[in-house]
């Protein structure tokens, strides 16, 4: 590993945070009028935009329609200017396909798909700036967008990443921390029930430490939930004032 | 508050990358002063002293904290040894991350200036902050910097600031502190002769260029112990030729100091020289006799045959200094009132150091520590400053301290953090400990050790099974159960690497509670163990091997002598004795088989001191005695080590910690073969087996000690055995033991390698869980490197301790004459061994005040002709031994020739034989 000290002796991380602290989160719902639902989120320097269309009739081949539930279609893309090096990222490359698939799994678990049989829900997520934890930012943005579209869900889906450095679990990794190459875990949580919608792990981590890292990620996800909940309530309040209730 | 930092970086491919990083400024970092209401309990970690107890300073009479800037901290860290002087070091370093003291780099400001400004801001913040905290105490923070501009700016901003020198001089209570300041100011050198002695060192950038292009070579500088004008540089890298480069002469050495990483320039072949075999010590008192030096240098260049020439070069620059504080003594300057003195380090490879002190008279005759500050081009010696006074020379405590420091043996008491990981007393085996553990308390286990041994790490048992086979068990203390990976206790033991046994003292690797109690397999108590159990037939062939963690209850702790007595006496037939007899029988078969395979039996003169129980002075010397039981225990330990090595290598082919002993290159044996030839014996060295056989055959009926001498010489030809990680090497062979694979498993109390091996084995049998570092071969290789270093140092320290006690012994004994054998022949001296004391020494034929005798040295045989007498290896001589105290620093045993008599050189035998006091002394001893 490089000479970079990810966790100082005093317990501070490279960017001044403590081990369990999140980066600053700012979010907005209803950023686009055309879409059924939309949201924008900033987690530190990671910025993501999510747009939701649906539920609507199946587009394209009818054969894809599911008789008992809605089809969740997720597409992930990242802007050419999202990373330090400008790079064209064509649609349908391996990484975005995988990310799309993961988002789909996550939201199939959260959205009450049974309520809309034979229809389709589209979730489009774009990362505008990537600074670590893109999956988490995408999930959090998409949750807000789905809520904005008024699609019934079991619960919020809140996601957060966590890593493990020098025997300490770090929540919400930044790009520098991710690039250092330690184990990294991404968790999407349904906070009310404490159910896990998705769990992914890169690199090897000893079984003994898993629980601690998992708990750090879960705690961070619950913190994210508190913040998102606040954002949603604020949005609803503003909207209802506009409606004149 | 959030700050964002944007900067551009060039990528390796040549592109430009823009990096955006955020930085969170915290508002919860406390000032660290206890009782500060504003910060509350926000501060963690080391705190400031509530009331700074600084020595009164005439510059700032109020109580104050000091805040040194980075340069002061780096250069004066040695003076910071005095606790309490630099109180706020820790907190000053962390402050720049805090909200109030964050400083952004301004346009046109470089990083250093920004840091200086940040420290000033911190100092200012501290002063204002502390004002609020304790109005009545009037605490002040004083900024210490050696940078003039920085100081001016600080004063402008209203911060009390001083230079380091100003402040230390103002300390009325501690005048001696000024000596400890590193002298960085150049003013001190102007008195030296303006003559430039050395060529300038090239700057680093040029060196790197040169190394890349191959004009210079990079290597580690190793000064010669015997000749201060000669050194070798061990070139880094894998190239086969030019591995060692000889540097000769003061100018070519060019201010490099032992262990520095240097760049050297290779001379053309015509200028190559051979390593001189002259022993030369820097004794000139007059500092700047450069011409004299040249004369001495001429002495080195003697005519030698073509093939003896070795690559030669000169030091052109220093890549990295590896200075450390050195132990030694002050050679007081002849001029009265002078404050400049020369310091002579105890390590002869280090040049003398010029220091400035006002307390020369108090420091005379004391062992002191000195740090080097620099070596200007016009100075014969490096400049340094006094650091610490260790105590009177010759005192046992001082000398022990010196030899521990000089061999870099960590010997401080264990820290609180380390001790906190010890099990709580009273300790007992719990249900949880029994998990994955076999109960072997019913077995008749016993331990056999040297007398007085308190750290018993092995025990044995042997019993007959129902099928007629024998079950043999080796039980090793389960230290890895108590030392968990990664905690402070583990890190400390890893750092120490080994227990160091000095003559009257043991420097433990693990705290005493473990080494002498919980891990020591004492008799009649339940102890946790790691057992290696074999099923063998009566022919000592292994049918089955298994390993298990266990609980044992040793039935007896015996000494080698006691065990031997039990085996020999026919009257005793209890369980322990039958078990011992079984073990002994098997061990003999095992040993025979091992020797047949080509294992070497080497010899080294080992001595033990009999200590006076009250004064701890050595009373008598005794060479170690070997009994059958010694080799019995050894045999089973070897077997256990080999079995474990096989098992862990099977399980972890990439990261098993093993031990290898490389076969020495044939050139190492030259001296042995030549020596044997001179006695008409032939030593074959092509394989270990043939060496062992020819050593066995090499006996002379008229000279019974010859065989031992040959074995001692053979030992000197050997390479060091080393630890290594199996994934980093592919030669596992252990030459000395003639085993294809070997490791250390049997002494976890005193060797860290064994703890790692225990952990590996525990994982292999599923008794314990693994951890990331254990399966990281680079980390393991680092551990091995440290262990090899510590083992070597421990060995040297042990030898130094023996040498010191030998001196004490001869001090009390006076002058003695003894028979000795010549081990080596040098150009101007012979090295002799005195079998009675296991003592080795050098007899010089050149003395300072006497006319030089005619010396003819023949390298081929090798022999030395002094006047008309010829000395060969293994010749029997008689020497007189006495303690030479003329040099206080290196009191040494001095030997001079008695027989054969050479007029003008040897000393007459009369009156030297026995000190008249001797019989009296002996009587007194008896009375005690």
UniProtKB/TrEMBL annotation, chain A:
One of its GO terms (molecular function) is RNA binding. Keywords: Acetylation, Cytoplasm, Exosome, Nucleus, RNA-binding, rRNA processing. It is found in: Cytoplasm; Nucleus, Nucleolus; Nucleus, Nucleoplasm. InterPro entries: ExoRNase_PH_dom1, ExoRNase_PH_dom2, ExoRNase_PH_dom2_sf, PNPase/RNase_PH_dom_sf, Ribosomal_Su5_D2-typ_SF, RNase_PH. GO terms for cellular component: cytoplasmic exosome (RNase complex); nuclear exosome (RNase complex); nucleolus; nucleoplasm. One of its GO terms (biological process) is U4 snRNA 3'-end processing. Its main location: cytoplasm. Residues 21-152, 155-219 form the Exoribonuclease phosphorolytic domain. Gene3D superfamilies: GHMP Kinase, N-terminal domain. Component of the RNA exosome core complex (Exo-9), composed of EXOSC1, EXOSC2, EXOSC3, EXOSC4, EXOSC5, EXOSC6, EXOSC7, EXOSC8 and EXOSC9; within the complex interacts with EXOSC2, EXOSC7 and EXOSC9. The catalytically inactive RNA exosome core complex (Exo-9) associates with the catalytic subunit EXOSC10/RRP6. Exo-9 may associate with DIS3 to form the nucleolar exosome complex, or DIS3L to form the cytoplasmic exosome complex. Belongs to the RNase PH family. This is Exosome complex component RRP41. It comes from Microcebus murinus. The gene is GPAA1.
TrEMBL record, chain B:
PROSITE patterns: RIBONUCLEASE_II. It comes from the Eukaryota. Residues 904-928 are annotated as: Disordered. Belongs to the RNR ribonuclease family. It is found in: Nucleus, Nucleoplasm. This is Exosome complex exonuclease RRP44. GO terms for cellular component: cytoplasmic exosome (RNase complex); nuclear exosome (RNase complex); nucleoplasm. Residues 437-767 form the RNB domain. Keywords: Acetylation, Exonuclease, Exosome, Hydrolase, Magnesium, Manganese, Nuclease, Nucleus, Phosphoprotein, RNA-binding, rRNA processing. GO terms for biological process: nuclear mRNA surveillance of mRNA 3'-end processing; rRNA catabolic process; rRNA processing. One of its GO terms (molecular function) is RNA binding. Pfam families: OB_Dis3 (PF17849), PIN_4 (PF13638), RNB (PF00773), Rrp44_CSD1 (PF17216), Rrp44_S1 (PF17215). It comes from Microcebus murinus. Signal peptide: none annotated. Its cofactor is Mn(2+). InterPro entries: Dis3_CSD2, NA-bd_OB-fold, PIN-like_dom_sf, PIN_dom, RNase_II/R, RNase_II/R_CS, RNR_Ribonuclease, Rrp44_CSD1. The gene is DIS3. Component of the RNA exosome complex; within the complex interacts with EXOSC4, EXOSC7 and EXOSC9 of the exosome core complex (Exo-9). The catalytically inactive RNA exosome core complex (Exo-9) associates with the catalytic subunit EXOSC10/RRP6. Exo-9 may associate with DIS3 to form the nucleolar exosome complex, or DIS3L to form the cytoplasmic exosome complex. Exo-9 is formed by a hexameric base ring consisting of the heterodimers EXOSC4-EXOSC9, EXOSC5-EXOSC8 and EXOSC6-EXOSC7, and a cap ring consisting of EXOSC1, EXOSC2 and EXOSC3; DIS3 associates with the base ring of Exo-9. The keyword Electron transport does not apply.
């Amino acid at each position: 590993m490089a000479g970079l000290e990810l966790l100082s002796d005093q317990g501070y991380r490279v960017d001044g945070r403590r081990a369990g602290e999140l980066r600053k989160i700012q979010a907005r719902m209803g950023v686009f009028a055309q879409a059924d639902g939309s949201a924008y989120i900033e987690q530190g320097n990671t910025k993501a935009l999510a747009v939701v269309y649906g539920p609507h009739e199946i587009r394209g081949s009818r054969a894809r329609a599911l008789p008992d539930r809605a089809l969740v279609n997720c597409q992930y893309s990242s802007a050419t200017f999202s990373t330090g090096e400008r790079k064209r990222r064509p649609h349908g490359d391996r990484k975005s396909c995988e990310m799309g698939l993961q988002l789909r799994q996550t939201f199939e678990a959260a959205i009450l798909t049974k309520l809309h049989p034979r229809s389709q829900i589209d979730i489009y997520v774009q990362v505008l700036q990537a600074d670590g934890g893109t999956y988490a930012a995408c999930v959090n943005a998409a949750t807000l967008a789905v809520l904005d579209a008024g699609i019934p869900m079991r619960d919020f889906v809140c996601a957060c990443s966590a890593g493990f450095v020098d025997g300490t679990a770090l929540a919400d990794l930044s790009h520098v921390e991710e690039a250092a190459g330690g184990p990294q875990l991404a968790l999407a949580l349904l906070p009310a029930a404490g159910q896990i919608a998705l769990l992914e792990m890169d690199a090897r981590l000893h079984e003994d430490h898993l629980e601690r890292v998992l708990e750090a990620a879960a705690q961070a996800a619950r913190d994210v939930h508190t913040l998102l909940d606040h954002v949603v309530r604020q949005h609803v309040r503003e909207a209802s004032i506009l409606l004149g209730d | 508050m959030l700050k964002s930092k944007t900067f551009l970086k060039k990528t390796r491919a040549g592109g430009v990358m823009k990096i955006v990083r955020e930085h969170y400024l915290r508002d919860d970092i406390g000032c660290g002063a206890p009782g500060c209401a504003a910060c509350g309990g926000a501060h963690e970690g080391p705190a400031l002293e509530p009331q700074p107890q600084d020595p009164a300073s005439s510059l700032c009479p109020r109580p104050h904290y000091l805040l040194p800037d980075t340069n002061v901290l780096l250069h004066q860290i040695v003076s910071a040894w005095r606790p309490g002087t630099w109180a706020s070091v820790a907190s000053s370093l962390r402050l720049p991350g805090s909200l109030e003291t964050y400083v952004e780099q301004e346009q046109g400001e470089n990083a250093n200036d920004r840091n200086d400004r940040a420290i000033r801001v911190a100092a200012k913040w501290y002063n204002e902050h502390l004002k609020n905290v304790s109005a009545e105490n009037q605490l002040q923070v004083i900024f210490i910097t050696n940078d003039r501009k920085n100081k001016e700016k600080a004063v402008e901003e209203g911060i009390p600031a001083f230079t380091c020198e100003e402040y230390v001089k103002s300390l009325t209570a501690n005048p001696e502190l000024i000596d400890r300041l590193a002298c960085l100011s150049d003013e001190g050198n102007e008195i030296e002769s303006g003559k430039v002695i050395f060529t300038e060192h090239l700057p680093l950038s040029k060196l790197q260029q040169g190394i890349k292009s191959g004009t210079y070579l990079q290597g580690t500088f190793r000064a010669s112990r015997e000749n201060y004008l000669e050194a070798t540089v061990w070139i880094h890298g894998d190239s086969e030729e030019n591995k060692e480069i000889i540097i000769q002469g003061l100018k070519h050495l060019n201010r490099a100091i032992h262990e520095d990483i240097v760049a050297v320039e290779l001379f053309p072949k015509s200028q190559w020289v051979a390593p001189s075999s002259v022993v030369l010590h820097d004794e000139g008192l007059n500092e700047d006799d450069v011409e004299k030096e040249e004369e001495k240098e001429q002495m080195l260049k003697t005519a030698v045959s073509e093939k003896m020439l070795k690559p030669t070069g000169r030091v052109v620059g220093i890549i990295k200094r590896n200075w450390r504080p050195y132990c030694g003594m002050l050679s007081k300057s002849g001029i009265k009132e002078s404050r400049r003195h020369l310091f002579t380090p105890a390590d002869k490879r280090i040049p003398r150091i010029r220091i400035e002190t006002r307390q020369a008279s108090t420091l005379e005759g004391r062992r002191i520590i000195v740090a080097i500050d620099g070596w200007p081009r016009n100075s014969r010696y490096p400049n340094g400053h006094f650091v610490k006074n260790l105590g009177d020379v010759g005192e046992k405590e001082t000398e022990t301290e010196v030899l521990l420091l000089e061999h870099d043996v960590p010997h401080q008491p264990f820290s609180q953090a380390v001790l906190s990981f010890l099990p709580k007393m009273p300790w007992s085996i719990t249900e949880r400990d029994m998990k994955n553990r076999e109960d072997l308390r019913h077995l008749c286990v016993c331990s056999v050790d040297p007398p007085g041994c308190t750290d018993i790490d092995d025990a044995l048992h042997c019993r007959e099974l129902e099928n007629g086979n024998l079950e043999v068990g080796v039980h090793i203390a389960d230290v890895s159960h108590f030392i968990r990976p990664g905690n402070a206790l583990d890190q400390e033991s890893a750092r120490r690497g080994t227990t160091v046994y000095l003559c009257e003292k043991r420097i433990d690797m693990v705290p005493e509670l473990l080494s002498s109690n919980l891990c020591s397999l004492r008799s009649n108590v339940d102890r946790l163990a790691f057992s290696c159990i074999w099923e063998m037939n009566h022919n000592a062939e292994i049918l089955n091997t298994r390993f298990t963690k266990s609980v044992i209850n040793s039935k007896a702790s015996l000494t080698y002598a006691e065990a031997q007595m039990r085996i020999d006496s026919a009257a005793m037939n209890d369980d322990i004795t039958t078990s011992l007899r079984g073990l002994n029988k098997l061990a003999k078969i095992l040993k025979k088989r091992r020797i047949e395979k080509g294992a070497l039996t080497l010899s080294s003169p080992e001595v033990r001191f009999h200590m006076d129980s009250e004064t701890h002075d050595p009373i008598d010397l005794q060479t170690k005695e070997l009994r059958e039981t010694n080799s019995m225990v050894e045999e089973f330990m070897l077997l256990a080590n080999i079995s474990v090595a096989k098992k862990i290598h099977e399980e972890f082919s990439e990261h098993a910690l093993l031990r290898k002993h490389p076969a020495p290159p044939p050139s190492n044996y030259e001296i042995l073969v030549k020596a044997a030839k001179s006695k008409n014996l032939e030593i074959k060295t092509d394989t270990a087996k043939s060496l062992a056989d020819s050593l066995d055959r090499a006996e002379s009926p008229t000279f019974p000690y010859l065989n031992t001498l040959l074995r001692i010489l053979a030992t000197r030809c050997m390479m060091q055995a080393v630890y290594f990680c199996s994934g980093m090497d592919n030669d596992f062979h252990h030459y000395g033991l003639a085993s294809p694979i070997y490791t250390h498993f049997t002494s976890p109390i005193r060797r860290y390698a064994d703890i790692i091996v225990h952990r590996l084995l525990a994982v292999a049998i599923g008794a314990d869980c693994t951890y990331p570092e254990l399966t990281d071969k680079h980390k393991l290789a680092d551990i091995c490197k440290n262990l090899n270093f510590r083992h070597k140092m421990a060995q040297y320290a042990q030898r130094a301790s023996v040498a010191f006690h030998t001196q004490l012994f001869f001090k009390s004994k006076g002058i003695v004459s003894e028979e000795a054998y010549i081990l080596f022949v040098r150009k101007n001296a012979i090295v002799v061994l005195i079998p009675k004391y296991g003592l080795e020494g050098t007899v010089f034929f050149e003395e300072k005040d006497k006319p030089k005798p005619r010396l003819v040295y023949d390298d081929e045989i090798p022999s030395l002709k002094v006047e008309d007498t010829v000395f060969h290896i293994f010749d029997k001589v008689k020497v007189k031994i006495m303690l030479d105290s003329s040099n206080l620093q290196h009191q040494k045993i001095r030997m001079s020739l008695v027989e054969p008599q050479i007029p003008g050189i040897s000393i007459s035998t009369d009156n030297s034989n026995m000190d008249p006091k001797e019989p009296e002394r002996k009587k007194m001893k008896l009375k005690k």
